[in-house]
Amino acid sequence: MPSKNSVNKPKLTENLRHKNHALARKRADRERKGLINPPRSHEDSKSGQARSESVDLYLKGAPQGSAVTTKTLSKKCQQKIERNMKYAEKRKLLTDVQAKLENEMDVEDENQTKEENKRSVKDAFWSALEDTQSSANLCQEGQGTTLGGPIYP
Amino acid sequence: MSLTISPKDSELLLKDKNILQESVLDKYRTAGQVTQTALKYVTGLINQSYHFGKEPRLTIPELCILGDSFMIARLEQFYKNKVNERGIAFPTAIDVDSVAQGWSPEMDDVENIQSRNKNSPLESTVTGILRAGDLVKITLGVHIDGYTSQVSHTMVIYPPGPQPQGPLLGGKADAVAAGHIAMESVVSLLACALTPEKLPNALNDGSRSVQGKAIRLVVDTIARSYDCCVVPGSRVRRIRRFLAGQNEGIVAEREFKGVVWTESHQEEQLVSNTGITDNQEIALRTKNSVTSETAVPSDDFTVKAGEVYLIDIRMCPQSELDKKGLVTLQDVDPYTGKSHKNDLVARSGAYVRDYAHSYHLKLKTARQLLTKIDRQGVYPFKLSHVSQVFPLDVNGSSEQWASLKKDLKSYRLGMSEITNNYLCVETPIRLTKWVPWDHLLKSTNQNGTLSFDATAPLSLPGHEVPLPKLGVSSLKLKSIVNSCPESKLLPISRESSTVLLCGADVSSNGGRPELLRITGGSKTCQASWIHSKFELNSQDPVVQSIFQLAQLTEDRRFGISIRETQPMREH
């Protein structure tokens, strides 16, 4: 049999077939494990999230309908999950309190500030235009100013 | 793009060559003397033609070319074969009324200008013949070895006669008064930098030195007292060898030091009393400090001894306007057939070589012209300067004018290729325009400051957006000025002068530091006869300190010493 690197071996067809076969196998495997279902676009999808068999078992119980399964939940693991969930609840409470504090600090929406700022600039311009008092410091009562004299400089 | 120069060279060129020592001082003084004499010559020609009625009357293009010829002829006597470069730093420009800068037309442009501007409101500018009541601004300058002197002076044209019949009144008189007084006050304020203990209290922020803010305060106060506005483009700036502000906007200058007036300052002044926060201003400043802080003009600087300053102040009267408005500058372009109203259609007479660009020219005439242009250096030049018949003689035959026009014909061909490839940039002609604020506020501005005007010449770094608070870009402002039916041309006055702050070591005054005013002053830049109905309000503390400054300059013994360069005796 020719080796993998042999000149005579039809590389492209063989390798592609092998690769496609391997990919198909992997895909089927994932499908079987229920990883593709639901699809990533679905709102129930857990793609990208931490995945744990034991937590699933704890929350949803044993899968229905299948006769034999290897997925089990030991008593110790169950206790651990219970303890962790208790702590998670406490953490959540703490972040809620913090978020509330931050909200109270009057952080305005950025767009709103920009819009308001622009409006206040225009208002300021209008009020400056309507203000006729500021030009009153012109001094016109005196003799005025004369420069030069009756010669061509 | 920035040129790479070794630190040793830049140290030599920017620092060592700019130290005011006897040889440098002498070059400045000689340049100033030539400039003063040329100014006297041009004012003399105008007086002869328009006041004493000597025929034939010289037109503006003729006056410009004669002024340039005079400068070149006078320079021939000085520093021949001793310096590499000397010549005209600013071609003679004669701006009438609303023209803010750059009106120095060539002789061959006269017919074009007249045929394209049939209904122009700028009659004197278009016909080239001055009329009584015109404010004529003469600007010219000379450099010797890069040490530059520049002068501008505003002259009033009276009805012809042996002497003026009466003073000029009205808004134009206000502008002349404000410009003249501001110029004198700034000169004495700069002189205080040499003897800071004599600085009046209202202009002293505790640092016992002359700050940029004080200069702005003085000029703005005087402008306000005469109901005038400081026109954008005015500046009080430090100049150095070959860096005399001739390339502002074309080349970003590092370590710019000076006060500039732009549209944004008018905007700031208008809303300063209403107490709005200037967020944008802060944002602008912080952004600039990261990139190229020193190229951005700001008022935070101290005037020091040993520096040379150019004071260039333009004032425009507002007493005849019924609304508050923005004063801005409009560039004149040479294109006819535009959809909006044109006040002036003309091509600019002066060009500046842009050494950052390189291109292999195709036309032989263009290549020949570029060789000649490269000899002119970094200063603005006119095409007639490279002509064979230049310098012209005032009493010469009429053939010289004919051969000048013939030379210009071939230069125009070459010049179009040169400018099309950006080897030279036109120095723009600018008009002073007024737009009411309410029109600016009502107009929609969808793009905000994002729109970018690639054709806008001469905007200083950090001042690209004319109205940062309103968010109006220069492109938008341009279209508003063109479209607004209420926008108006305003007359302006202009005074400029170059001053040297000589410390005790170089002063000719027996070891006392003194300010050497190489251009302007009482001999050449006397104010024309005008009367303004306004006067400075002596209750104002800033005005009081302006009066104190005036007193100090008159006090020979205990005051501040200012020496003026006199024009040469007889030409």
From TrEMBL, chain A:
Keywords recorded for this protein, A-Z: Cytoplasm, Nucleus, Ribosome biogenesis, Transport
GO term, biological process aspect, one: ribosome biogenesis
Disordered: annotated segments: 1-55, 134-153
GO terms under cellular component: cytoplasm; nucleus
Extent of Basic and acidic residues compositional bias: 26-46
Protein's UniProt keywords contain Aminoacyl-tRNA synthetase: no
Record's compositionally biased regions (Polar residues): 134-144
Subcellular location: Cytoplasm; Nucleus
Top-level lineage group: Eukaryota
Name assigned to this protein: Ribosome bioproteinsis protein alb1
Species in which this protein is naturally found: Zygosaccharomyces mellis
Taxonomic classification: Eukaryota, Fungi, Dikarya, Ascomycota, Saccharomycotina
TrEMBL record, chain B:
Record GO terms (molecular function): metal ion binding; metallopeptidase activity
Keyword match Protease: yes
Intracellular or extracellular location(s): Cytoplasm; Nucleus
Residues annotated as transmembrane: none
Any one Gene Ontology BP term: proteolysis
SUPFAM superfamilies: Creatinase/aminopeptidase (SSF55920)
InterPro entries: Creatinase/aminopeptidase-like, PA2G4/ARX1, WH-like_DNA-bd_sf
Keywords, comma-separated and alphabetical: Cytoplasm, Hydrolase, Metal-binding, Metalloprotease, Nucleus, Protease
GO cellular component: cytoplasm; nucleus
Protein family per UniProt: Belongs to the peptidase M24 family.
Xref: PANTHER family: METALLOPROTEASE ARX1-RELATED (PTHR10804:SF102), PROTEASE FAMILY M24 METHIONYL AMINOPEPTIDASE, AMINOPEPTIDASE P (PTHR10804)
Protein purpose: Probable metalloprotease involved in proper assembly of pre-ribosomal particles during the biogenesis of the 60S ribosomal subunit. Accompanies the pre-60S particles to the cytoplasm.
Name assigned to this protein: Probable metalloprotease ARX1
